[in-house]
Amino acid sequence: MRPSHHDPGAPLLSSDTASDARPSPLTRLNHAPPAAAEAALLACCGSHRWARRVAAHRPYPTVEALLAAADEAAYDLTPGDLAEALAGEATTALTDRGGLTVHTALRAAHAHYEAKFGHAFILALDEHTAADPGAALDQTLASLRERLGHDEDEERVVTAEQLRRICRTRLVRLAGGTARSARCAGPAGAGGPTASDSGGTGPSSEDWHTDHSERAFEPPRSPDRAGSITPGLPRGTDPVSRRYDGRGRWTVPGRA
């Protein structure tokens, strides 16, 4: 483990103390330069507008506040934003569970889905299902068949919701939180590692420490902006109409 950065005039810390004093992944995200934060967030969702919006609303006091802001940004994705995000979803290898018949059916359904909707199939799985390759495979095939019956507008709504859930999982890994989130079955099948899964290529708290420049994510001595985002979102309203007011509150136009 690399030593934490320290004040040149301060005495060197022991390795244990340095490890304890290391900023949390969420703190690093909060104080990262805008371009670096946006790049990390793009690994969670491939929409540039989504990443810019989530980065612009920093700092976040908790992972839950980060997830609330990410949800609001996801609700505001345009069809173009969604298409951009889906274009960045990588196809994963199929698990070797399930037998030839299931795999043949899954490949055929996946090809049919891409031909009909023009983008990769994504599915967020709960932790229990994701931990069982056979169950994940069955659910993926069943979901593919069901969603092939949708028209384009119906499937866009379903896909956007699946993407939102997958982004939450990736954000939890990035920020080092413990919030419960869904895992992604992956566009080409279920049970294999994906960008949002624990064995995949998406961001994680460990990636945040080791894969990026330590200097780029070193927190400043004093934050350059005040305030924080809070997850107090009005209920019973169209989520697209909610707006962050820049002072730590979500508001609905026309409401006091």
TrEMBL record:
Q: Which InterPro entries match?
A: OHCU_decarboxylase, OHCU_decarboxylase_sf
Q: Which Gene3D superfamilies match?
A: Oxo-4-hydroxy-4-carboxy-5-ureidoimidazoline decarboxylase
Task: Could you list this entry's UniProt keywords, alphabetically sorted.
Answer: Purine metabolism
Q: Where is the composition biased (Basic and acidic residues)?
A: 206-224
SUPFAM superfamilies in the record: UraD-Like
Q: A Pfam family matched by this chain, by name?
A: OHCU_decarbox
The keyword Lyase belongs to this UniProt entry's keyword annotation: no
Q: Taking every annotated instance into account, which residue ranges of this chain make up the domain Oxo-4-hydroxy-4-carboxy-5-ureidoimidazoline decarboxylase?
A: 30-171
Q: What are the start and end residues of every segment in region (Disordered)?
A: 1-30, 178-256
GO biological process: one example: purine nucleobase metabolic process
Protein name (database record): 2-oxo-4-hydroxy-4-carboxy-5-ureidoimidazoline decarboxylase
Q: Which organism is it from?
A: Actinacidiphila paucisporea
